[in-house]
Amino acid sequence: VLGPTDPSKAPPGSIRREFGSNIMVNAAHASDAPENAQREMAIVKVGENGFKRVVEDFCGKA
What we know:
- This protein is mainly alpha-helical.
- The chain has helices spanning about 15-20, 35-45, 50-60.
- The protein folds into 2 domains: about 1-30, no CATH class; about 30-60, no CATH class.
- It has 3 helices and no strands.
- The chain starts with 14 loop residues before the first helix and ends with a helix.
């Protein structure tokens, strides 16, 4: 679904192939392991950064 970090190597129809520009602007981020996800969520401060509101404003509430 997401595809490799490099959009030029991602399969057609993947998020990064369709919306990414290059290896640095690749449309989406995903952690490669649960431990890294926990570390990254602590950095971003999930729940404190207002990102959920931005997504809900744009996409609507689930």
